[in-house]
């Protein structure tokens, strides 16, 4: 069975981005780049929410990949949306309107590498509630935004985590990985 990981970068007070979507506060350096080079090859499938998809399309427009993979992520990409019709959209991603937990549970049983859940606090909450996320990993940034797009949304239960790794990075960031 394939492993599902949720992660990204967040402020110390638990935000993905400013209220306007700005991420100018994120620290990018050789430590972060090394983690990405080490991590990215483990995955061949990405699942994200529509708002994260919109950001990805804007940030990477014009970059192409080959085959059925998304031209923006280089992976088979699924986008969950309540507002977009289901089906393939420009760039090669597939929009999905079904239950996220059931869909990801089915993906886990398909052949392939690991599955990445990218951004989307609402999507992550639904997948945590469904019990399909196996691992959480974040680069915690040394900034308190005070408000913004939250990383965590209300859950109906406590979810216990086991620390796998904690690594200090240049610039004051800390990279943490937890097993659920």
Compact overview of the structure:
With 180 residues, this protein is an alpha/beta fold. It has helices at 30-39, 50-60, 100-108, 121-130; strands at 4-11, 15-17, 43-49, 76-80, 87-88, 94-96, 114-118, 135-141, 149-150, 162-168, 174-179. A nine-stranded mixed β-sheet has the order 5-6-4-3-7-1-8-11-10.
Provide structural commentary:
By secondary structure, the protein is an alpha/beta fold. The chain has a single domain (4-179), classed as 3-Layer(aba) Sandwich (Dihydrofolate Reductase, subunit A). It contains four helices and eleven strands. The protein has helices at residues 30-39, 50-60, 100-108, 121-130, and strands at 4-11, 15-17, 43-49, 76-80, 87-88, 94-96, 114-118, 135-141, 149-150, 162-168, 174-179. Strands 5-6-4-3-7-1-8-11-10 form a nine-stranded mixed β-sheet. Strands 2-9 form a two-stranded antiparallel sheet. Strand 5 (87-88) and strand 6 (94-96) form a beta hairpin. It is globular, with a radius of gyration of 16 Å. Residues 64-68 have low confidence and may be disordered.
The CATH superfamily bears the name Dihydrofolate Reductase, subunit A
Strand order of the largest sheet: 5-6-4-3-7-1-8-11-10
Query: What gap, in angstroms, lies between the N and C termini?
Result: 15 Å
Total domains: 1
Uncertain parts: 64-68
Shape: globular
Task: Specify the biggest β-sheet.
Answer: 9 strands, mixed
Radius of gyration: 16 Å
**Record field, number of beta strands:** 11
The helix-strand sequence is EEHEHEEEHEHEEEE
Helix content: 10-25%
Total helices: the number is 4
Assess the beta-strand content as a share of residues: 25-35%
CATH architecture: 3-Layer(aba) Sandwich
* Category by helix and strand content: alpha/beta
């Amino acid at each position: 069975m394939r492993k599902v990981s949720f992660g990204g970068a967040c402020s110390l007070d638990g935000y993905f981005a400013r209220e306007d979507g700005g991420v100018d506060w994120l620290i990018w350096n050789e430590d972060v780049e090394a983690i990405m080079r080490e991590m990215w090859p483990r995955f061949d499938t990405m699942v994200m929410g529509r708002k994260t998809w919109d950001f990805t399309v804007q940030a990477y427009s014009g970059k192409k990949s080959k085959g059925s993979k998304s031209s923006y992520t280089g992976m088979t990409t699924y986008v969950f949306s309540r507002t977009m019709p289901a089906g393939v959209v420009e760039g090669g991603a597939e929009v999905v309107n079904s239950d996220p937990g059931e869909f990801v549970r089915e993906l886990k049983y398909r052949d392939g590498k690991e599955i990445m859940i990218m951004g989307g606090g609402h999507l992550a909450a639904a997948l945590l509630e469904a019990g399909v996320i196996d691992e959480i990993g974040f680069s915690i940034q040394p900034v308190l935004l005070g408000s913004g797009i939250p990383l965590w949304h209300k859950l109906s239960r406590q979810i216990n985590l086991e620390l796998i790794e904690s690594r200090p990075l240049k610039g004051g960031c800390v990279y943490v990985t937890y097993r659920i």
